Amino acid sequence: MSSLHWPPTRLFLLAVATFLAGEHHTSAEVLTVSSPSSILKVSVTIDAERLTYQISRFGESVIDSSRLGLVLKEASYARNFKVLDSATREVDETWELPWGEEKNVRNRFNELRIELQEVSPSGKLLTLVFRVFDDGIGFRYEIPAQPGLASFEILDELTEFQFPADHEAWWIGAFLPDRYEYLYSNTPISAVDTVQTPVTLETKNGLCLSIHEAALIDYPSMALERKGLHGLKADLYPWSDGSKVKGKAPLKSPWRTIQIADTPAGLIDSQLILNLNEPCKIEDTSWIKPGKYVGVWWEMHLAQSTWESGAKHGANTKNVKRYIDFAAKHGLDGVLVEGWNVGWDGNWYDNGDRFRFAEPYPDFDIEELTRYGKEKNVRIIGHHETGGGILNYENQLTEAFQFAEDHNIRAVKSGYVGQGQCIRRIDEAGQPQLEWHHGQFMVRHYQKVTEEAARHHVALCVHESIKDTGLRRTYPNLMTRESARGQEYNAWAGEGSNPPDHLVTLPFTRMLSGPMDYTPGIFGLEFKEYRPNNRINATIVNQMALYVVLYSPLQMAADLPENYEKRLDLFQFIEDVPADWQDTRVLNASIGDYVTIARQDRHSEDWYLGSITDEQGRVLEAPLSFLSPGKKYTATIYRDGDMADWKTRPYDAVIEDKVVDSSTTLKIRLAPGGGQAIRFHAQ
Ligand code: NOJ
Q: Is 299's C-beta closer than 6 angstroms to any atom of ligand 1?
C-alpha cells in the first residue's frame, strides 16, 4: 500500500536569518527538515560564501556544517546563491522486492527540495533535494535544463562530511590496482587518506554511521578523501582527460547517503539505499529467479584444471556433466562454467580483446549440455570474462546475450579482470585511453550491459564490478556482484588467505551496499597438494553459516563436488538453505568481531540462522522471539565441535536436533574462527 501526502501535513521550519558580518551585509537562509519521528534534523544554509548542510540527532550534531556544491568547467556552483523556491513532502509507502533479504520494504521519509538561483547576470539554477529518514539521510544535486548549459563537465564535487570527532572507521583505500578487493583497515578517521564507500564509522558513544551513495547512474563513483582532521570530502573517479563528469542538463547526481543507527545491527537493518533508488523498470520479473549453483571454478583457482584449452581444460563436456549430475542430485539450480569460450589461451588478462562470447571451445558441446541440463532441470550459468576489453565486449553484447538466451542460460557471471586504470576507451581523436573501473565511462558500460541482459532475460552476477548502490531495485536482473575481497583469495593470495575478522567486517561494510557473490561453502579447508601456502582460515561450520550471513540471491556452493560428497551430513544445510528471504533479523552484532543473523524463508515458515566470529571464541545468546508464537520448530543445529578451532581442528563439527519455540533463548557457542548454522523447521 502506498500513500503519498501532498500538500504536507507536517510543519517544516523555514528560517531566514540575517547576519551582519563586518561592513558586509550577508543574508543567510536556513532551511530545515526533520525525519518522520523527529530523530534526525537537517539544516541547509545558503549564504553568499557557501552552501552547507548540518545534521543533528536528538539535538546532537552528527555532521557538523559541511560544504555542498559543484565546480563545472563552465561555471562554479558553490556560492552566491539565493533560494528561489522550496517545497516539502512526506512519503510513507511499502513496496515489494521481487527477491531479497526481505519482501516488504517500508519507505518513509520527509523531503525538502530547494531551488536555488545564482545571484549573477546568468542566474544559473541548481536544485538540492534532501530526503530524511529516521535511520539516515540522502541528498542529491540536480542541474535543471537552462539556457547556456546544454552540456558541461564537472571538475569537482565539493560535498563534505565533517564529523564532530575523530570516530573509529572501517575502510578500504580508493584508486588502488585491485579495485575493492582489499582487507578492511580499522583506524580513526584522521588516519584515512582516500577511501572507497561504503565507509563505516562508530562514535565513542556507539552511534554507527555509513557513508555511501545510491542510484549511481551515468556519473563516476564517489570515493572520499580526508578533509580537515576528521572530515571526508567527495573525490570522484576521473576520466582519463581529468574531468569527472561529462553531463547534459537536466542532470541528477546519485544520492549521497549517510546511514545512522544506535547499533551496528541498525546499519544492516536499514533499507535506505534501496529506498533511494527508482522503482522497478522491468515489467515482468517472473523469469528472474534466485537460486544456488555449483561451478567449474574452484578447480581452476586451485590449479587442478585450466581456463585455457589443452589437456587440463576444465570446461569440457564430460566434466560439466559431472557438475550437472551433482547439482541435479542435490537440488541446486545451476552450474557455472568458466573457460568455455575462445579467448583464454595465452595471457588473457592482458588480451581481453581476444574473447569471443558466442564461440565455445570445441570440447565444450553447448548444444548437448543445454539438452542435458534441461533433462536434469539444471541451468548452465554463463560466463563473460572481458579482461577489461570493453569495446570488444560491447561490440558483441547483443550476440553474447542472444547466445545465452538461445541456450537456456538465465544468468551470466561477468568479469573485468585488470588493474585499476586499465580499461581501454577510444577517444574522440581516435586514440586509446585508459579508464578506471569506477569512472563514468565504466558506470555507463555496466548499465548498458544490465539493460541488454534484461532484454534477453538474463540475470547478472558481476565480478570486478562497480560497487552496488541499490540499482537492483530498478533492475532486479542485476542480482549480485563481487566488489570486495572474496573467497578466491583463499586459494592463491600471495600475502595469505583472508583472516577470520574479514568475514565479520563484511556485513557492516561491503554488505551494506547490497548482495555479494562471496562464493561460500568451501569444505576442503586445506589444499596442500595444490596450494601449500594457502588455506581457509575458518572452521567448516563457519563456511556454512555464511549462507545466511552474507546474502546473495545467486548463492554458490563453491567447493568441488568430491569434497561435498565426503560431508553430505553437513552439505544438507546447503541443500536446504534458501537464497530468497521473507524477513531478516540481526540478533548479535559487533563490527569486526561477530554477527548473528536470522532470516525467514520466503516460501515456507522455516527460519535459518547464521552466526560467525573472528579469531576469538565466544558464547552469544540468540532469543528466538522471531518464531511464530505458539508454534514448535525442530532446530537442526550445525555447530563447532568442542575441540574445534580454525587453526588446529577446523573440521570438528556436531549436528544436533532440539525442539524450540519463540520463548527459547539459544546459547550459541562459537569456536575461534568458528560459526553456527541452524535450520528451524516448522512442525
Ligand atoms: C576473477 C573473478 O573474481 C573470478 O571469480 C573468476 O574466476 C576469474 N576472474 C576469471 O574470470
A: no
Minimum-distance ligand 1 atom for the alpha carbon of 307: 10
Q: Say which CATH topology domain 280-483 has.
A: TIM Barrel (3.20.20)
Ligand 1 lined by 302 (C-beta under 6 Å): no
Ligand 1 pocket member 517 (CB < 6 A) = no
Per residue in 228-270, pLDDT (tens digit) is: 999 999 999 999 999 999 999 999 999 999 999 999 999 999 9
CB contact set of 648 (below 8 Å; sequence gap of 6+):
none
Measured by CA distance, the residue closest to atom 7 of ligand 1 is 297
Query: 80's torsion region: left (phi>0), alpha (psi -120 to 50) or beta?
Result: left
| Ligand 1 near 30 CB (within 6 A) | no
Q: Which of 398-435 are b and which e, b meaning 16 or more Cβ less than 10 Å from the residue's Cβ?
A: eebbbbbeebebbbbbbbbbbeebbbbbeeeeeeeeeb
C-alpha of residue 337 to centroid of ligand 1, in Å: 11
Kindly give the number of the ligand 1 atom that is closest to the alpha carbon of 464: 3
pTM (global) more than 0.90: yes
Domains of the chain by residue range = 3-275, 280-483, 487-514+525-550+575-683
Give the long-range contacts of residues 338-341, CB within 8 A, separation 24 or more.
Answer: 338/295, 338/296, 338/297, 338/300, 338/307, 338/314, 338/383, 338/385, 338/413, 339/296, 339/300, 339/306, 339/307, 339/308, 339/313, 339/314, 339/315, 339/383, 340/315, 340/364, 340/366, 340/383, 341/383
Same fold, 280-483 and 487-514+525-550+575-683: yes
Residue 10 has pLDDT above 90, yes or no: no
- Of 493, 495, 496, 498, which Cα lies nearest the Cα of 520? 498
Query: How much distance in Å is there from the Cα of 522 to the middle of ligand 1?
Result: 16
Instruction: Identify the pLDDT of residue 432.
Output: 87
Pure H helices in 388-439: 390-406
Q: Active-site positions?
A: 488
Query: Which residue among 308, 336, 417, 482 is best mutated to probe the pocket of ligand 1, counting the most ligand atoms within 8 A of its Cβ?
Result: 417
Ligand 1 contact via 385 beta carbon (within 6 Å) = yes
Q: Tell which one of 336, 351, 488 to mutate to probe ligand 1, the residue whose CB is within 8 A of the most ligand atoms.
A: 488
Contact 613, 500 (CB under 8 A): yes
**331-358: pLDDT as tens digits:** 999 999 999 999 999 999 889 999 999 9
The pLDDT score that the predictor gives to residue 20 is 32
Fold of 487-514+525-550+575-683: TIM Barrel (3.20.20)
- Tell me, in angstroms, the distance from the centre of ligand 1 to residue 502's CA: 20
Q: Which backbone phi and psi does 501 adopt, to 5 degrees?
A: -75, -10
Local structure of 396: helix, strand or coil: helix
- C-alpha cell of 297? 571454478
Instruction: Look at residue 22 and tell me whether its pLDDT is greater than 50.
Output: no
Atom in ligand 1 nearest the alpha carbon of residue 463: 3
Percent of the chain with pLDDT over 90: 92
Residue nearest to atom 6 of ligand 1 (CA): 415
- Which of 92-106, 263-277, 294-308, 427-441 is least confident? 427-441
Which of 297, 306, 348, 385 for mutating ligand 1's site (highest number of atoms within 8 Å of CB)? 385
Q: Give the position of cell 520494504.
A: 105
Q: 135 CB under 6 A from ligand 1?
A: no
- CB crowding 541-568: b at 16 or more within 10 Å, else e: bbbbbbbbbbbbbbbbbbbbbebbeebe
Class of the CATH-defined domain 3-275: mainly beta
Q: Is the CB of 338 under 6 A from ligand 1?
A: yes
**608-640 burial: b if 16+ Cβ within 10 Å, else e:** bbbbbbbbebbebebebebbeeeeebebbbbbb
